[in-house]
Amino acid sequence: MVMDIEAFRKAGYQAIDRICDYYYSLEQKPVASQVHPGYLRELLPAAAPEEGEDFQAIADDYQKLIVPGLTHWQHPNFYAYFPTACTFEGMLGDLYATSATNPGFNWACSPACTELEAVVMDWAAQLFGLAGHFLNSSEIGGGVIQTTASDSALVAIVAARARYTAAHPDVRLEDLVIYTTTQTHSLGVKAALVLGLACRALEVSADDRFALRGAALRAALDADKARGKHPFVLVGTVGTTSSGAVDRLDEIGEVLKEHPDVWLHVDAAWAGVTLACPEYRAPAQLASINAHADSFCTNFHKWGLVNFDASTLWVRNRRHLTDALDVTPEFLRTKQGDAGTVIDYRNWHLSLGRRFRSLKVWFVLRSYGAAGFREHIRKGIALNAHFAALVRAAPPFALVTEPSFALSVFRLAPPLPGVADGEREAALDALNRAYYARLAARPDVLLTQTVLNGTFCIRFAVGAARTTQDHVERAWGAIQEEARAALAEWEAARADGA
Ligand SMILES: *Cc1c(COP(=O)(O)O)cnc(C)c1O
């Protein structure tokens, strides 16, 4: 019996009840799923059922079979990767959006989908202090919701390429170069792969806190241009994934003034939402974003309270997007599109159809208000500052680089008596890998690792909606406990070897 409206009503109420129970019980669950690879294939039949099944059995199997295989990103002791927002307002926005599913590719598909997106993107632009030219109401630049920051970067790079090749029609595609840094998210390399273009990752140093400086960019541009290459886009980052580094967009902007056909895309997937707070606009380089960026992206779906997916992309000039991406076959033409009175968002991204994502952004921004949004961001930063202070005060724990917004990167750096200077870094690396393996095996907290210019370290990223100072302190307890065990193990191995 497939579900009719009344059966949906019943199953829907039950689903909401069970989701509420899930949230009540979240803290009692292990943060990371404890299942082994292939666990689900062992439990599921090899093919879809021939006859339809009772929905109650299906719903029960979700609890029994799927939930144990979930890592709970909303768990208050989740400090891995970056947070992935999930709010009840966002969930309901998604539910309504899917209830009226439509592919929203042009205005006439469902006028509300296009119009709400154009409005909430302007709300978000103002929340972050973006300059007027990024607003849809400017009718020059504008904002669009993409699936991910990777899609946003790809779209920006496609637009940059189209702008560059239009200005330089004789340039061979094999001479075009995408600039990133060694700390840029893999989205730069991914875009290069997809587009069949070269990508050059500029070196950055620990002394500069892993930020790209103007001088390094200028040297690379000069060298590449001298050998006939055409760098046409730079992906700058505000808040790199590994360590939260912020490229020096002020210096970069000055250099790019001498190279005005190089597009600056600013990827602030994680940290861009801090721009909601006036006190973080300087560290997140708002003035330079407004002065120099051709495109800017941040993800509401990370730290920004809106459920995956909601990556917001703004461009200085929407024509660069539509020049690169506008394909309007006869069957997609509309009166309003032809007249140029409406946005046809299909020409602002890669696919034709699109989800009605603005609804959940609208729900969240209205329910939290700008003040509630800022409070959430400030809470994450305060919790991270608390964590960083605990690390600083407890050698042999050491921060590897300055904390950035709501991210700290640390490791154990004990004196290691008896280890020669030349072997110290290798020994610390081995010790920290063993330490992280212990930490990763714990069910009650989840952190992830990274390598910064050869140094193995551990990341602590705060921002889940339910994390409190109490949780951070309990996590710190676990972090210390495993450190004591790892250090004792190292000393025992050393005594054995001696
Ligand atoms: C997470 C992250 C990304 C990738 O985000 P997606 O939306 O999953 O593509 C890109 N850049 C930075 C700096 C990130 O932290």
Question: Explain this structure to me?
Answer:
- Keywords: Decarboxylase, Lyase, Pyridoxal phosphate.
- GO terms for molecular function: carboxy-lyase activity; pyridoxal phosphate binding.
- The chain is α/β, with parallel strands linked by helices and about 500 residues long.
- It has 3 domains: about 1-30 and about 35-65, dopa decarboxylase, N-terminal domain; about 100-355, Type I PLP-dependent aspartate aminotransferase-like (Major domain) (Aspartate Aminotransferase, domain 2, 3-Layer(aba) Sandwich), CATH 3.40.640.10; about 370-495, Aspartate Aminotransferase, domain 1.
- Helix content is about 45%, strand content about 10%.
- It is built from 15 helices and 11 strands.
- It has helices at about 5-25, 40-45, 55-65, 90-100, 110-125, 150-165, 185-195, 215-225, 250-255, 285-290, 320-325, 335-340, 360-390, 420-440, 470-495, and strands spanning about 140-145, 175-180, 200, 230-235, 265, 295-300, 310-315, 395-400, 405-410, 450, 455-460.
- The strands form 2 sheets. A 7-stranded mixed β-sheet has the order 1-7-6-5-4-2-3, sandwiched between helices. A 4-stranded antiparallel β-sheet has the order 8-9-11-10.
- Strand 8 (about 395-400) and strand 9 (about 405-410) form a beta hairpin.
- Helix 4 runs antiparallel to helix 13.
- The chain is globular, with a radius of gyration of 25 Å.
- The N and C termini lie far apart (about 70 Å).
- The mean pLDDT is about 95.
- It binds pyridoxal-5'-phosphate (PLP).
